[in-house]
Structure formats: structure tokens, C-alpha cells
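Q: A reviewer asked whether we had any structural model of the full assembly, not just the individual parts. We don't, so I'm hoping you can provide one. Inputs are below.
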Amino acid sequence: NAGVTQTPKFQVLKTGQSMTLQCAQDMNHEYMSWYRQDPGMGLRLIHYSVGAGITDQGEVPNGYNVSRSTTEDFPLRLLSAAPSQTSVYFCASSYLQGISGANVLTFGAGSRLTVL
Amino acid sequence: AQTVTQSQPEMSVQEAETVTLSCTYDTSESDYYLFWYKQPPSRQMILVIRQEAYKQQNATENRFSVNFQKAAKSFSLKISDSQLGDAAMYFCAYDPYGGATNKLIFGTGTLLAVQP
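A: Here is a predicted structure for the entire assembly that you could use as a starting point for your response.
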């Protein structure tokens, strides 16, 4: 059981380039999300999805696109990379657990992106 | 706006001693969830403990326990018998939607050092 798999683990881009961070989960989780982690700022939500075909914006969505065509995959696209997007990106998946309804995230290992 | 505040950027504890990490949050909701996540140098985010707001009893997981003060909006993490493997960044997180989404709000983190 692989859990949440993110690729690539490291990437260096030039300003203006585009790329896609891949995220796949094999746990049949309904919910998936993307966070970015910056020093001194914790994790901030970029986009999230509550099921295939349904996505919505989080706290810092500008410059990023997502889609959810399958339950398993939730790619994050940077259309025109900017230095401000230099960060560590985490994908997470979750489902409602039991009667309490707690939504416990399972995180991927993270992707470090540097934009020059 | 809903916020999570971790006022201790760094903490240090001697091996086998006890340490408490602080977290406060701001919300007008009555039903929500709180979490502590651990991030070791490997960068992997690991769930340490969770608390449902409707439960008055403080959650406990082995050497980890919380002091949940709902009226004060405080959610501190106590680590007993600290071990070298506890050295990590610790994030407090708040789920304001009762599990309906996976939109967690994270604090800025506390870096815990464990001295041998």
C-alpha cells in the first residue's frame, strides 16, 4: 500500500516555465488537497477536492490550477512559474473516519520546487 | 478569520524530560477538530494526536497528550519522557468544517530540539 505518492521530489524551474506536480493515492480517499510550506508560515492550502470532478480554491490559489478526473489523481499545475512559488509542496488525502467524522490527512513526502 | 497561533518558534528539552508545546486558535464555531502533526527532518508529515471539540476528555496517545481548553481556545501538546526521535517541527492544525472537507488551518510550527 503506497499511500500518497508525489512526483517529482525535487524540481528547479526558470521563471515563466510551466510544470505539473503529480499526486496519486491508492487508498480510495474521497478528499485530496495541496498545501505549500514556507519558512515561518506553516502549511497553507492551495486547492482541494472533495471528490472526482469537484475542486475548489484554498487560501493561496493564485498561479495554480488543479483538476480531479479520477479518485486517485490530483495534479497541481503551475502555468507560468514565478520565484514566489519557490516552496515545498505537499499533497494530502483523507476520508471521514467513523461516527466522529474526523478528517485525518495522509500526506505525501513533499516536493521541493525552486523557481529561478 | 480563523487562525492558529503557535507562539513558540523553538523549544528545547532534555531527553527523558517533559515538554509542553502551546497552540491557540480563533474560531466562532462550536464543533471542530484539532490536530498535532510532527514533521521530522525527513519532511514527512505524521499525525501525532487529534481532539474532537465536543469531547471534554483530553486525548492521549502513549507519551503524547493534550490539554484542550475550549473556552480559552487553547490546545497544548505535552510530550512525556522525551526521546531523541521526538526532535522535529510540530504543527498545530484546526479543522473548522467538522470533517466535511479537508481544509485544515495550520499554525507556523514549533521546532523541538531534544538534548541527550
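A: Points you may want to mention in the reply: The radius of gyration of chain B is 14 Å. Chain B has a mean pLDDT of 93.
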